[in-house]
Amino acid sequence: MNGGMSSVMLVARREIATHIRTKAFLLGLLITAVLVGGVAFAPKVFDRPDSYKIGTVHSQQLPLKAAAPEAEFEWRAFPDEAAAKKAVLDGDVDAALIDNTKVLTDGEIESELGVLLQSTSRELKLGAAGVQVQPLQMVSVGADTRYQAARTGIAVVLVVVLFMLIIGQVMMVAMGVVEEKGSRIVEILLTSVRPWQLLAGKIIGLGALGLINLVTILVVGVSASVVSGVAVDFPPGLPGIVAGVLVWFVLGYAFFATLAAALSSLVSRQEEVGNVMSPLTMLMMVTYFGAFYVTSDPTGPLARVVSLVPPFSSMVMPVRMAAADVPFWEVGLSMVLMVLAVLGVLSFGAKVYERAVLRTGARVKLRDVLRVK
Amino acid sequence: MLEISELRKRFAGGPDAPEGKVALDGISFVVRPGEMFGFVGANGAGKTTTMRIVMGVLQPDAGSVSWQSRALEYADRRRFGYMPEERGLYQKMRVADQVEYFGRLHGMDVAAARAATGDLLERLGLTERRGDAVEALSLGNQQRVQLAVALVHDPEVLVLDEPFSGLDPIAVDALATVLQERCRGGVPVIFSSHQLELVERLCDSVGIVSAGRMVASGTVGDLRAVEGRTLRVVVRDPAPGWADGLPGTVTVTGDRHVLLATDGDDQEILRRAMKAGQVEHFGTEQPTLTEIFKEAVA
Q1: H or E element that contains B7
Q2: What's the CATH number for B228-297?
Q3: Domain spanning A51-128: which superfamily?
Q4: In this model, does residue A1 exceed pLDDT 50?
Q5: ipTM metric
Q6: N or C end: fewer C-beta atoms under 10 angstroms in chain B?
Q7: Chain A residues with CB inside 8 Å of B105's CB?
């Protein structure tokens, strides 16, 4: 057994060493890192807090900051109305308050600023008249939705990342299997390693490369969010979500990659890979769209059911966990089912691969492979 | 000792040949330690199928292969060296990395695999290309790498399918030298080839296969003995009818008569020839492997 595992690790190491040196891998890593970093900084760039410049003529500065703590206000005093009017028309200020009685604007006033000025001025005057107004108390009776926007955002990014990584690595497994079969290297390899060792080594090696990619994305994403300040909106359970993503990636990848190896061992030429893989590609696409749908409705009945059914659960569950709180038993059940599915696929895939990989030439029918013995 | 006995293999037929095709029809032979066994036969005779069965790439329908008097197993084959008919290497992998990788797959540790790789590349004249990707090499050089892959783990048995095809004479010599060394070290070597004069020069024994059967096998000397020696006499301008009553056949080219005989009393033949005219040549000739081969598969 010891010798068996060392062969597997040799095969896996070759896969990693061969691909990690290629420009395609390094470039891909760089591009995803830049993209994810960009996503983390995007809210900072596009979603700046409101800021207003307000001019005054014979007026006091209103306590707008107290009413709208998120916004920035900049005050400028003008000697007379004419100067203030010019500043408004030139766009130097957004509005100008004259004699505490009227507001000059260029066209219609921005509604938020208008309401703020109106209500603050009213409160000030009522206060001056001795009337105390109790501000309305806001009470939420629904779920805690403070982090909802951030959670949905994380879920959407996750769907795309998981899908791209899984389909990318799975296609590499398929191409690798056909490379070895088509060039007959497999004939030499199989005199020194067992088919399952070759298969396991290839899947583990390419999976490790996928994990390197995923960890890079997570590290860049989280650190960029901390630097950009977006991270303050992240939900408190983030480390759990990240750990879950890694586990689900491994399970989903193992499922699809094993099937990919089995299917691609049926053909001998690279041109035939797309064709023989099409049912599996379809299955991955359905999983992807399912997961995408779940980002918009993470608590609906469809999301709850699909997040339990393998292999869909491998992408739907992590996305659901990011987008909403999922009961512990559902996560556990989903994981158990997925692990069982992976084990089933491994035994099926290893059998198909072993029987088909030496049968070079025309495409081998899956039926024929399964019928033997 | 590697013993191949009564191998049979039929390939499933397609729609146009429902009967299938018999590739091996009970082939048997033995290769002893330190013996270089040349495997010759027409295309499709069954050489590659036999070698693939020996290496476990194909399963025979019947028959067996044994090594050291035991049924050949996977663990034994791990110590064999194999060069398949259709060459297979990782095109994008570097030469030295590749040879070393196969050494490690055969169970060598890093240091041993590296040392064996360096040594082999040196002998095969590939040291300068060790850092190049295989795809950047000429076909002849790729074949040398293929051979290095088969030899790196110091195999106990070598099974090489057409190792010399497509090589230039210098590469043929380099390869032949390496194989002879291994052979002298006690390793049985089986190789197939269409270059019969090469087989004749290198091999201790030869197997001639035709239509899935071994039609002749043994040492080159044995085969010649079976085929028999031929007496060749050339007489210039002899009297007509000089060879009447003598065994063999006479062909006439100009004023030269050539008598070829495989039996009869050579002294009697010589006396008759000298009486008839001027004897230009008198001697026995051994058949070449090519002649034996043509005779055997005819």
Answers
A1: strand B2-11
A2: 3.30.70
A3: Periplasmic binding protein-like II (3.40.190.10)
A4: no
A5: 0.79
A6: C
A7: 7, 10-11, 189, 192-193
